[in-house]
User: What shape does this take?
Amino acid sequence: MVWFFSTNTPPQVALRSNNEDSFLLTERQVEQYNTEGYVVLENVIDEDALAQLRQVTDELVAKAHGITEHTSTLDLDPSHTPDEPLVRRIKHPYFAHPFYQAIAAYPPIMAALSTLIGDDIRLRTGGKINLKLAGDGAAVEWHQDWAFYPHTNQDVLAVGMLLDDMRTDNGPLLVLPGSHKGPIYDHHSDGVFCGAIDVKREGLDVSQARELHGSAGTITVHHARLVHGSAVNHSTRARRILFYVYASCDAWPLMGVSDLDEFDGMIMQGATTLRPRMEQVPVRMPLPAAPNQGSIYENQRMLKNKHFRT
Ligand SMILES: O=C(O)CCC(=O)C(=O)O
Assistant: This one.
């Protein structure tokens, strides 16, 4: 594996071949994204990159040995102990290791996304890896990413890079097809943002939800407004996914930009603009903020009527 570092360009992952054009989406895949709000793309991450992604992740997780509290990178499972470490999530991996920076700009992923949100692509935030470990890897309650970060237009999506095979038994990502065209549901509990939908209270029927499956190296792409979640992993196999959110460079966060250099420093491809594109989009602001900050698991603790059994 070769990394190229320079002060001007993000590090890059070496490709098996210069064939990123073959990752441009077909009309049918674009149509699926537009009508159903998601698409699953197999064999996007090649074997070398996947091996390195797993290795770097294992190294980070090993740092949980001996610690008692969450760190800025490691979100610990409630049953974690210093001797039997259990990490639930790696927070902001982009800032934790250069390889995660490289994989964020992986050319096949950029090629695939350019067919959906155009050639000017910005990474939003440092991402996360949900580890959903074997045994009882934590559920993620139903939610819409848009509820966390509304933008001026909806060319905003999340990419999930599968480190492990994802099947029915290990807590696959569940999506509600077409829900990205519906309302933005209330993600509040007791008047405070909790990052989860009380599906009973909101009258949201999730019985038609679909499981997303794929082998390690597959990527999932879902629209920021799509309702999604995932159940507990009761299997003997981990289900680790690296999630990155990308937006068209002209989609600006409605919560504001506090540091323009940092914002523009996350452009993976193309050019910035100071003229956000405005669309008529439904919005509920994620305020007042959740008292339990740190990760979605902490936020969602506030939800009273949990859908997934823990
Ligand atoms: O890990 C999962 O299954 C879902 C994760 C997710 O949607 C999130 O963390 O926002």
